[in-house]
Design goal:
globular; four-stranded antiparallel β-sheet; aminotransferase
Length: about 375
Amino acid sequence: MKISQRIANSRPLATTAMHGRVETMRNEGREVIDFSIAISHFPAPPTVLDAVGAAVEQVRTMPYTSVVGALDVRERLCAKLRKENGVEAHADEVIVTNGAKQALYEALYAMSDPGDSVLIFKPHWPAYVATCQLLGLRPILVDLPAEITPEILATCEPARIVIINNPHNPSGKVYTRAELEHIRDWVASTGAQVIVDESYEHLSFDPVHTSLAALCDWRTLGVVTIFSASQSYAMMGWRIGFALAPAPLVGAMQTLQGPITAAASHLSQVATVAAFEAGVQQHMIDEYRERRDMVVRRFAEVPWIVMDSPDSGPYLWGDVRALTHDTVAFAEALIEEEKVAIMPGDALGVPGYIRIGYICDDVATLMEGVRRVIAFGDRFAARK
């Protein structure tokens, strides 16, 4: 059987591949602690479950909706944008998608042609680079600085599209208003368009999250903003997100989405509206902060890792260069010897680091996993 060259030369996302490996090991009866991906131990908000239950009772036959999403759903998402993000939008500027990944793929597909360049700050969510490669685009990878300044942006190679992840996965950086204004002015001067992934908008522990679209004429500038219910509302399996974009671009994304999946499921659309209308889930944020602090304190005692305390998000980003730069080999040996899965920094563009998802399971399991990582690292250091 012939396999096309464009997919034969591609590889599964490292994040999903590692999670799949964990599932395989568990199906074989082996117990594994999975830090490779963030899967919240919280259930979806009660308002979400109630809304979906009511929809099932009231509408026995679930209808197909418009490919872009039901009109009332998009109108209510516009109200969310106005209230929470300070962005005025119309229903024809919103498209509901099967998660943030679909919104990213469709936006990049509709905004670019093969060979176009895309600037991505690293470490990066692996899907950014993988999607570019699938579409024949040219990723330009730039180290994410501690602070975005005009001087740093001036050193970046001009690109057709710039991807910003705010709050950032995996570092936990939350862009300041001043940084976003610098980016706004820079892309306006270079003519680049911007995709802003705000999937973690509600997972900031202290800094205020600001949407780039609130600081500019986003229609003229060509800004696409992507949102997801997965992490902010513990709704990973619901596979729902949406994008805000200028109406012509939403129309182009709809043209692509139609033959691929058509509309997101009716029930997921009901769920996502209920989620975004529920606002910040403060009880989740409070517990995540406690977990973050607990794990960071534990790693502070370990000489071979530097683990900063992130300002946001469900991940910790650890510097293990004092131990090794080959974090792929580190991760492989860790899962075999200690049955703990982590994500090697190589998969996110930066060898010598590891990413740990710390929101899964109960606290006892979390700390047992941390103990195993430290025990393994100590043996690794002793062997050196």
